[in-house]
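Incident log, entry 3
Record: Osteoclast stimulatory transmembrane protein (471 residues)
Problem: checksum mismatch between cached and fresh output.
Input:
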Amino acid sequence: MRPPGGTLEHLVRTGWRYWYLGLRKALALLQATWITYSQPVPASCGQLLTQILLCGSLALAAASLTYCWLASSLLYPLGPSAVVATVCGLLAFLGLVLVPPARCLFALSVPTLGTEQGRRLLLSWSTATLTIAVVPNILANLRATGQVLRCVTEGSLESLLNTTHWLQTASQALNPDGQAGSQGLTLQAHGDSAAAFRLHVLRVTQQVLEDFSGLESSARVVALGTQRVVTGLFMLGLLLDSAWYLYRYLTDLRFDNIYATRQLTQRLAEVGATHLTASPPAWLLWAAQPRLSQAELLSCLVRLGLFTLLLMAMAVTVAMDYVAFLLAQAAVDWARELPAVPVTLTIKYNAAYTILGFLPFLFNRPPLENPYLSAHNSFQWELRFTAPGCPLLPAQRPHTAAPLAAGALQLAACSTVLLETYARRLRHSIAASFFRTQEAKRVCHLHARLQRRYDRHRGQPAQPQDTSSCS
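Fresh output:
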């Protein structure tokens, strides 16, 4: 019987062993699947069935992604999006099954996303997503602020005209008709001029709000159209970049032939020329090493600095959206909380006259007053600073999902700066696995290049190379 410590150690070792064996089996299965996928012509019915299943799965995934991209991101109608996605899926399936270079092109498009072309696609998608969500929202909040100014202006003008009306009524009460020769307060308001001024102000504010509304709609339409066009162009550029890489790989032995692969190491070992890579040149990259060269690291740092500026610009844009929302919300809340101020105007008017008023003064008596006119009037109205018939627009809260999605896309584009070197190595490995004969010729060419460099450094004439194994 084992002690508890020994049992636990045995269980850990057994679990680790099973996990390691399972990982090795999974890697072997993936490697066998990739070999079957990269075969130009299937060697058996099993490989043919596997290729059909893989191509069908990839075509289905491509159709699903196309439908989600068209319907959710580019906001196309659901029916046309489904039709386009179905056609793309069928064409992708036929191309992947019948045309082996199409399978290579499809595989090359994945690491191409990590290169400069894929980075442009991610940045354009991020910018369009942020523009569609943020710019119309900022304009909507500015329109809500303008509506507050309109309502306050309209309410203040109505209160001013109402106050003028009541003051004129009070002045008429002080100077009633039929009192010839009486003097009182005279207040005259030109109603036509006041109404014309009020209409002019309302017309101007309404025009400003309509301009903001039209600008908001135009910005949304322009941003969406720009996103559709730019994204389509960059997707086409992504496929063309992959096709151009494949064309150059098949036609130019010097193109992207700077990797010390396992095939090169085996060839140098077979011909006894391992000394050629003992002190390798700076341009030779070891495909199996994850370490970046100094030049690659410096280029990554420069590009990361540029991406920092883009992230700062995105942060400023999102901050402007929140500032516009807070200003609009504060203005709307302030306008809603403006109270109606009650105004009461009380007029007491007593008029009297005296005759020979100096006589009672001589006898030190108060003069006798004869009442002539007595009036007591009270007028009440309210000062409203917002017009009752002017609706206040609510402030539009900033979208959270769109800035997060744009930030995630920008971070993904930023990560491609560091992964671009590995993406280029992966692209070379994919092309090499599809076209093994061409890769053998490229290895021979690289071997000859290294030999010429070695001979030049030693001051020896160039030696002829054995190319029998390269044909």
